[in-house]
Structures are given as C-alpha cells and as structure tokens.
Amino acid sequence: LAEAEKLLRETITLRRETGEKPGLAASLDHLALNLLQQGRYPEVGGFLDESFNETPENNTAFLATLLAHRARLHHTLGSYAKSVELLGQALAMDFANPELRLVIRSQLGLSQLRLGKFEEGYSATLTAAEEAKQLYPSRPFLAVPYMNNLGAIALSQGDAETADQVFSE
Asked: Is 155 strand, coil or helix?
C-alpha cells in the first residue's frame, strides 16, 4: 500500500501538471481508497472531494462510485446513517452499469443493517443477491459474496435452515 500510495501521488502530480482531468479524478479516487485501506481516515475525504469536483456532471457512473466510496468511509467510521444517505443518492443517479448498481445496493443493505434497520437491510441484501444471480448466470461464483451476506444475516437471526439453503446454493 505504501508503494502504491507513492506512485499514486506521483501520478496525481503529473496529471495536475498536464491538466488531465479524467485521469486526475480517477487517481485521486484511487489514492483515497488506498488511504482508507491504510486506516488514514482523516486524509480520505479531501481526496474524494477533489475527485468529485474534477468529475464532469455527465459522468454519473463515476460520480455514483465516488458517493459509494464516501459512504464506505462513513460506514468504516460508524456513521451508518450518513452511509445510507450517500448510497441512496448514488442509487438515485441515472447510470447504466448494473454491476455498480449491484455493489452499491449491497453496500446499502449492510449499512442499513448496521444502523439497525433490519427489514430494509435484509430487503436490500436479498435484492442484491437476486440481482447477482441474474447478472452472472454463466459465472455464478461472482454471486457468492452476495449470497454469503444473505446467509450470514440468516445465521445472525438464528435461522439455520435458511442459512443452510443459501450457503448450499
């Protein structure tokens, strides 16, 4: 992570010098995620803000991605309500990437569960699992993380039978 951070910072400097806005926004986002992974939370928000400001309004998929990354920061910090709010904003955006929508919906379900909104969180997680199965019919292993979340929820509720069915599937 440290070496990647160094390279990302160098890339950002070069992109600022050359005025390469789309590349700059992506590099800022990558650096923010790197710092989030390192646990350097106070530094993350500023890079996400700058990336958001460098992204054209018509690039809704990337803007939704940035909202989801900011939501991940808030989730990590325990601000689940803010995470839910940001993920809702991201899902409300008009973009056509079903995989991105799936990831955001799954993240929303997990944040809702952490917030104590069981019905909403379970519903979002169930929807994400169903969407994943439909999205990846020829590569069902890609739906496994979403199914595992559903099974884990069933286990947490003492529903071993449903968990067994989900994990078996």
From this structure: helix
Gap between the Cα atoms of 130 and 145, Å rounded: 12
Around 22, how many Cα atoms within 13 Å sit in the side-chain half-sphere? 6
Amino acid making up residue 76: T
The Cα–Cα gap between 31 and 6 comes to 9
Q: How many residues does the chain have?
A: 169
Residue ranges in the chain assigned as alpha helix (H):
2-18, 21-38, 41-54, 60-76, 80-92, 98-115, 118-135, 144-156, 160-168
**CA 19/CA 36 separation, integer angstroms:** 26
Inter-CA distances, 115 with 4, 34, 52, 110, 150, Å: 33, 26, 26, 9, 17
pLDDT in tens, 43-91: 999 999 999 999 999 999 999 999 999 999 999 999 999 999 999 999 9
How does pLDDT run across 3-30, given as a tens digit for each residue?
Answer: 999 999 999 999 999 988 879 999 999 9
